[in-house]
Amino acid sequence: MTIADTRMMMDKPEDIVLWEFNICDAIDSVADIEFQRKVWLGLDLRYCSSFHEVIMILYDDCCFEDYIVYRKQTYGIDILWVLMCDLDKLMSAYDPDNVYTDKFVLTDPEWWKITLLAKAVLEEMKRYV
Predict the structure, then answer these.
(1) For 33-43, b where at least 16 C-beta lie within 10 A, e where not — what string?
(2) Which pLDDT value is given to residue 48?
(3) For 60, how many CA atoms within 13 A lie in the half-sphere containing its CB?
(4) 56-88: b or e for each residue (b if 16 or more CB lie within 10 Å)?
(5) At CB < 8 A and 24+ separation, what contacts does 30-35 make?
(6) Does the predicted TM-score (pTM) go above 0.70?
(7) Residue pair 25/54 in contact by the 8 Å Cβ criterion
(8) Residues 60, 50: contact at Cβ < 8 Å?
(9) Residue ranges of domains in the chain
(10) Are residues 111 and 105 in contact, defined by beta-carbon separation less than 8 angstroms?
(11) 3-state SS of the chain?
(12) pLDDT, position 44
């Protein structure tokens, strides 16, 4: 992290910093297929999660769509904004009503595309936030 990055973070209101931290954490849950496999299939009993919970945390708890709007209004159109829009589009098209089990999601090539894009978003967020 550079001095400029630190100054930029210090200039942000605390609630925005927390919002971005929570979104990074939620996107990490989308990006980490190994964590999903362990937790969703009950192989790691220290955690409790599911496909639907990961989606609800990102969209309902973290207001991901609102953050995308905030990001554009505050910073304009940049690579992070484009990646976030792409992730939102893919995730919105992933129909949870057609998802029968967490095990199905973990083997679905469409979900793997989403996790790869989430990794790219996460890497870019680490550069910006």
Answers:
(1) bebbebbbeee
(2) 87
(3) 6
(4) ebbbeebebeebbeebeeeeeeeebbebbbebb
(5) 30/54, 30/58, 30/87, 30/91, 30/114, 30/115, 30/118, 31/115, 31/116, 31/118, 31/119, 31/121, 31/122, 32/115, 33/106, 33/112, 33/115
(6) yes
(7) no
(8) no
(9) 13-128
(10) yes
(11) CCHHHHHHHHHCCHHHHHHHHHHHHHHHHHHCHHHHHHHHCCCCCCCCCCHHHHHHHHHHHCCHHHHHHHHHHHHCCCHHHHHHHHHHHHHHHCCHHHCCCHHHHHHCHHHHHHHHHHHHHHHHHHHHC
(12) 86
Residue 85 in contact with residue 68, Cβ under 8 Å?
Answer: yes
- 32: closest CA among 110, 119, 127? 119
State both tokens at 86: 């792409």
How does pLDDT run along the chain (129 residues), one tens digit per residue?
Answer: 443 344 344 467 789 999 999 999 999 999 999 999 999 999 988 888 999 999 999 999 999 999 999 999 999 999 999 999 999 999 999 876 676 789 999 999 999 999 999 999 999 999 877
